[in-house]
Every structure is written in C-alpha cells, then in structure tokens.
Amino acid sequence: MLVRLSALVERVRSSLFFVPMAFVVAALVLGIAGLEIDTRLTESGTGLPDGLTSTVDSARAVLTTVAGATITVAGIAFSVSLLLIQQASSQYSPRVIHGFFRDPFNKRVMGVVVGTFTFCLVVLRSVRGPLEQDGSPVIPNLSVALAVALGVVSILAIIAFISHSAHAMDVSKILQEVSDSAHERAVRLWPEPDDVGSPEERRDPSDEELAGGLRVDLDASGWIQQIDFDGLAAAAGAGSTVHLDVAVGRYAVPGTPLGTIVPAPEDCNRAIDRVRRSLVIGDSRTAQQDVGYGVRQLADVALKALSPGVNDPTTAQDAIFHLGGVVLELLRRDPPPTHRHVGDDCVVVVREELTHDDIVGLAFDEIRLAAVGMPTVCIYLLEVLDLLSESLRERPQTVLDPLHRQATLIRDGARGADLLDHDRRRVENAFASRFG
C-alpha cells in the first residue's frame, strides 16, 4: 500500500498539471470570496480609499488587460519550459529531464500566472454598467484592486522564472541535482557497513530448492520502479520463501519469470495476483528504489559529452567527478542483503540486487570505452579512481578490486588505441603514478 502511495506521489511531483490546477482552483475560490466581500461592503455603505476605487470602464479595462497579459505570458512560460526540456534532452541526456518536470519553482510560477488569469475572469463577469440588468452598476473595487496586485506579482514571477530558467541549463547545476538525489537514495537504501566480513554469495537456486513451488510470470511490460516486499510476504504466507527473478531498474517482459513461491500457497490464483500487484511497473525508470539510476544518469551525461556530435570533454570531466561522489557513497556502504526477512517469517530472495562490482562497471565501463581515444579524459578517469581508492582504503579488498581493474583497463585501452606515443605515455604515466 505504501509503495503504491509512493508511486502516486512520484507521479504528482513529476506532473506539470497538478500544481497549476491547484492554483486555478484557489483562484476560483479567491475570486468568489472577493466578490462576496465586495457585495457586503457595498450593502453596508463602507467605502474604500480613492486609490482602490474604479469605474465600470476602468474595471473592465484593468481586468481584461491583466487577464490577456497573463494568459499570453503563461503560453510563453510553458513554451520556455518545453524548450529547456528539449535542449537538456538533446545536449546532456534524456535521463536528466526528470529534474525539470519535478522543479517546483517552474510549476508555481505557472500556477501564479494561470491563477491570476482565472481570478480576472471570475471578477470580470460580475462587472455591470448602469444600463445592464436592474440599472444599478456593480463595481467590485476590492477584487479589481486585488487583480492589479496579482498582475504585479505575475510580472515579478515571470522575471524570476526567466532568471531561474537561464540558470537551470548550467550543466554543473543539473549534475549537482542528480548527484544529490542519487546520494539521498544511497543513504536511504544501502545500509552502513557492519563488521567487515565476506560478501554474500550470489547464486541461482537449485531445482531442489524450487521443487513444489509456484512460479509466477510477469503479465505487464515496462520498467520495474518499486517492489513491495511486505506485499510479497503477505502473498506468499508465513514460513514461505519468495525467490525473485526481477529487480528494480530492470525491464519487465510479459511471460518471463517474476519469481517462485516455495512452498506453493493453497490459493494459487490469489497469490499470483497479489505478487504481481506487489510490483510497480511504469513507462520509465525512477530513482525511488533504484540506486543505480542516478549512476546511469551521470554516466549518460558523460557519454553524451564524449559523443562526436557534442565533443565536450570539459562537461565529461564535470560528470565524471560528480559520478565519483555518488560511487564513493555507494562503495562506502554495503548492498542490501539478498535474503530479506519480511512479515511473518517470510524470506524474500533478491538475486539480481546490484553489487559493488556492478556499480563500478555501470559508472565507468561505457565511459572508458568512449574515452579510449581521448587521453585527457582517460587521465580524468584514473584520477577519480585513485581518489576513490584513497577514500575507501579502509574498506575490504573486494570493494577496491573493481576500481583497480577499471584503472588497468583504461591503461590497456590507451595502449591499444590509435594514439601518438606522447599521448599514450601520458596515460601510462598517470596510471603508474597512481596505481603503480
């Protein structure tokens, strides 16, 4: 249940519709309340200062001007936001645009603008001249004055929006936001290391272990965003073991194995339905339970920068060092255990959980291959790997080995690349000075 609620919250946070809609509803309420207050002030004969009073023509002119200007600017604001998303997708990576969808500042600015427009429409329809209906003019002076104030607020919001949008395309800012999100997920999902010990053995279950079990297949396609382990335990029952064949961040293909419940429950159909509902499957990957997604995002930015169409080694350097910070936090911690005791003595076995070796490979394998003909970028990679090795020197050797292996591959790649002897020696010297 909590996983489903978390998925709903994530969809709301990534929506460009919900916040502006909330502002529109608030503007409707504010407009109706303002008109009611104006009616009571008129009936009681309470006057307003001269600076807040209007004529019928001036009230209509003000409301029409503010409404027309704000809805025009709203269209521009939406266009600018979509342009930024498109540019970020093509310049950096399609994986980093989630931050633009989640940016609360942009959604609030859009909400202020469309809310002001809605308020002006509500008030404008109540303005009547002396020759209309019963012959008595209706001028909601307080509401008109409030519309002017909202118009000024909208103008200031648009100026702030332009400034914010200009800074939003700073690649260092984008990378820092991705790094902060990945760091938060690492802290929340991967535990602090306990006493140094041997890592868990990752192995496939034997036929004897799965004998008598109930195999559950996937029935939907998409990215596995979250897994409800409590839901799995409730579906399997007390004393059962659920062997999962899927993991968060993997793509679900209908008809392929989801997992096996051992022993098979009495009501198989009900168990299959509940197990399937324990997975949240969506159109795209999210970082809610996926620590590898932040690493994937940063690596993609570096790969995009190293592509022939962009060829921006400086951006690649920025992404590589941000990537090093996220990898450091993950290697400083231990992966979640493969055997998780959940609910009433139920065990969920997650064999596809990411390991330290997986994280290092995800972070550096593709970048290393893309940078094989760029000695300067190879040296950046060796520097990051050296900094990681130095920071993690107290960790077990099994954590450090993937880093040293990557450094060796970078050196060997430079040796086999079509480089000048001078450039090849630069990479070899950088390797020798850091890794011997």
Which structural traits does this protein have?
about 425 residues; 16 helices; alpha+beta; three-stranded antiparallel beta sheet; five-stranded mixed beta sheet; single chain; Aldehyde Oxidoreductase, domain 3; 8 strands
Structure description:
This protein has 436 residues and is an alpha+beta fold. It has three domains: 2-169, no CATH class; 207-282, Aldehyde Oxidoreductase, domain 3 (Alpha-Beta Complex); 292-335 and 354-435. Helices cover 62% and strands 8% of the residues. It has 16 helices and eight strands. It has helices at 2-13, 18-44, 56-91, 98-102, 104-124, 141-168, 171-189, 207-210, 229-236, 268-277, 291-306, 313-331, 356-370, 375-391, 397-416, 421-435; strands at 214-217, 222-227, 241-244, 251-252, 257-262, 279-282, 339-342, 346-350. A five-stranded mixed beta sheet has the order 1-5-3-8-7. A three-stranded antiparallel beta sheet has the order 4-2-6, sandwiched between helices. Helix 12 (313-331) runs antiparallel to helix 13 (356-370), helix 12 (313-331) packs parallel to helix 14 (375-391) and helix 14 runs parallel beside helix 16. The longest helix is centred in the first third of the chain and has 36 residues, at 56-91. It is flat.
